[in-house]
């Protein structure tokens, strides 16, 4: 073969240019890095798992646990700062409001948006489950030996939060933390949010000079937390790879195949919910749905990978302020609030799962039971912690309230993590849609006696 140096140099130069192009595409694009980690993790997990069987189960577990270590460190770091970040962000967001009247309007609008969309979400889930009848594709004998225990990934604090022994008035009273420090230590997020809202409202009512020292302290605390988050984001693609590999190695493809119709029903409902959000974005804000999806894709992918709304809350605030051009005061108030009480994807999943298990057991839920299902799911979703696996714990309470045996929960555990990833991505999308809507349609409207705010350059 004749050596052709010029041709070889051209090939080498072309490969170098291609490498530089790929590096420039990947560098600075967190969503692309996360997606690469996601697909690589699935591939490695399938090779390690029972589907392929190249590695012994004990060795596969050890390898997958080590692969998941960066992901566990990433989640631990985020969990470490999520309480002070929520606390500082909500108070700063509220205290930056010009008046109590504007604050009341923004807060009521956010609460109404969350409750309304959560109700619509579970109605979508119930309608799909009644139309598709996923439970008719499952043999009830699969439930033999199922103990119905809650998912080990679920937050044990959720068991106390949703204890059926408490009456509704007692639950309302429990929202006010008698010992705020204890609520912070136990990561009782809803109580922390209520405490932060009360402090923020009080600071709005105070003279600005009196509230300024605490505001400056909280602003510094917020910046410290965001600096930690910025450092942790370097681990995000590796974390996604490891967590996905561990999940794929544990579950395998065989377990997923038997629950295909049930999973498809939940995912179809979540897609319909996502379409509803995009329609709201167009109708309420005038933004193109493609522009919105392009702006929030990094948040969606990270939420899908971590299954935790709280874990992606710092990134969601950053995207809302920098990419969606939302006022910091609105983003810092609505997104932490939404991460705590806005669980639309979870509500939809609970509706589908409850009807699915009722169909498996041959239980017919009448209109009264369906109404109770809607009310219970909305209330439970609003108060659920933003942690992985808590949906199973809430589902156990809902099943008890409508008379469906808890033995069916064991059937759902094998695929719950995958569905948890999907519904978390939809949950954080709802938070960003609410933030965008309130910034464009509610916060910019002048209150009585105020001049209209200047339009923001987009």
Topology:
Blueprint: H1 5-26, H2 30-48, H3 57-67, H4 69-95, H5 100-132, H6 157-161, H7 168-174, H8 180-185, H9 189-205, H10 208-232, H11 236-257, H12 260-285, H13 289-306, H14 309-322, H15 328-341, H16 344-361, H17 367-382, H18 390-402, H19 409-442
Helix pairs in contact: 2-11, 2-13, 3-11, 4-9, 4-10, 4-11, 4-14, 4-15, 5-12, 5-15, 5-16, 5-17, 5-19, 11-19, 12-16, 12-19, 13-14, 13-19, 14-15, 14-19, 15-19, 16-17, 16-18, 16-19, 17-18, 18-19
Features of the shown structure:
mainly alpha; Proton glutamate symport protein; 0% strand
What do you see in this structure?
About 10% of the residues have low confidence. The longest helix is centred in the C-terminal third of the chain and has 34 residues. Helix 14 packs parallel to helix 19 and helix 17 packs antiparallel against helix 18. This protein has one domain: Sodium:dicarboxylate symporter (Proton glutamate symport protein), CATH 1.10.3860.10. The chain has 458 residues and is an all-alpha fold. The termini are far apart. It contains 19 helices and no strands.
State the end-to-end distance. Answer: 60 Å
Please identify the structural class as seen in this structure: mainly alpha
Portion of residues within helices: over 70%
Q: How many discrete structural domains? A: 1
Q: Give the strand tally.
A: 0
CATH superfamily: Sodium:dicarboxylate symporter
Q: C-alpha Rg, in Å?
A: 24 Å
Any idea of the CATH class? Mainly Alpha
Give, in order, the helices and strands. HHHHHHHHHHHHHHHHHHH
Uncertain runs: 7-19, 21-26, 144-164, 447-453
Name given to the CATH architecture: Orthogonal Bundle
Strand content: under 5%
Mean pLDDT: 74
Shape, per Cα inertia axes:
globular
Q: Report the total helices.
A: 19
Largest sheet: none
